[in-house]
Amino acid sequence: MSTIAWIGLGHMGGPMTAHLVAAGHTVRGVDLNPAAAAAAAQRGVEVVATVADALRGADACFTSLPKPEHVRAVYGGPAGIFALAEPQTLLLDTSTVDIETSRWCHSEAAAHGLHFVDAPISGGTAGAEAHSLTFMLGGDDDADISRAREFVAPMAGSVFACGGPGAGVAAKLANNMMLFIGVMAMSEGSQLAEKLGLDAKVFWDVVNVSSGFSWPQRTWYPVPGVIGTAASDDNFDATFSVDLARKDCGLAVQAGHTTGVRLPAAELALSQLDTLIAEGLGAKDCTLVAKLASPDGTLRGYDPSLDSSSAIAEEART
Question: N or C: which end of the chain has fewer CB within 10 A?
């Protein structure tokens, strides 16, 4: 079994590291959030204080971080991964970042005599818990990709070698862009069905075997009492927050601008996420965009009075 360093023990990193521990690996983890670190420790992760402590003698190092700037900060600098990692440590970033940041990671790793694979994931917190995530791997070295496959196997349902440096991230950005467009379609369809008087579960069953079927419809349906585990069944508390969805969708739109690809649907999805953030709802679930389809802005399953962010929302309106 291997020794694995893990930087970032949040909603995704916590359950992912638990599967590595269950597979027999030693996992040394770091997180700035004491609650996240404590939760990971309860799952068998050896929580350490610094990146240097995590990296010492590690066979692999995973990062699971919120934004590109966090990735650059953790990898760069005198106390960063590139400065401290040992030559045998394979570096894998599961974060969703822009193409330029991923390519920077590859080039800087090579300059330091290290091996890096971009390894973003799809499947959300449910996939992280169920070790059914899709991993999208990017890198030039077949040996690195082969090693990466072995390390991610305990967490994965599917693993794809997508191409050279940054190809994994490219696949992730395009995939998540399609997801958010799908969330918008699901949101509008669900609310139209509600106002037309259809039973929500009956309509969901129809869509589930018809042309409106999609992953978000199957997993994140924004009407309570249909799936039971969707955010709509928990006052739209986040499984995939508006803030993170906005980050991912924004990176995809940015890639469209860079490549000249026209993305009007993605830009509309981005604007809806921005609307929720302007209302102070960035910490809620991204499927709350369904309330933007409602004639009066209310949404069955969402009670702002039960939401700690409602005060923030009210402040944003005043």
Answer: C
Which tokens is 309 given? 């962010």
Assess whether the region 3-164 and the region 171-317 belong to the same CATH fold: no
Give the tens place of pLDDT for each residue, 8-30: 999 899 999 999 999 999 999 99
Contacts of 201 (CB under 8 A, 6+ apart): 225, 226
Burial class (CB within 10 angstroms; exposed 0-12, middle 13-18, buried 19+) of 142: exposed
CB 54 within 8 A of CB 44: no
CA distance linking residue 31 with residue 58, whole number of Å: 17
CATH code at 171-317: 1.10.1040.10
- The answer to whether the beta carbons of residues 202 and 196 sit under 8 Å apart is no
C-beta of residue 76 within 8 angstroms of C-beta of residue 26: no
Helices (H), the chain: 13-22, 34-42, 51-55, 68-75, 81-84, 99-111, 124-129, 142-152, 167-195, 200-208, 215-220, 242-259, 264-278, 310-317
In whole angstroms, give the CA distance from residue 61 to residue 85: 9
Catalytic residue list: 172
User: CA–CA separation, 88 vs 60, rounded Å?
Assistant: 8
Structure token digits, residue 192: 């139209």
Pick the CATH number of 3-164 from 3.40.50.620, 3.40.1650.10, 3.30.9.10, 3.40.50.720: 3.40.50.720
Q: Where are the domains of the chain?
A: 3-164, 171-317
pLDDT tens readout for residues 48-67: 999 999 999 999 999 999 99
According to DSSP, the β-strands at 133-138 and 121-122 are antiparallel
- Ramachandran region of residue 96, left (φ > 0), alpha (ψ -120 to 50) or beta? beta
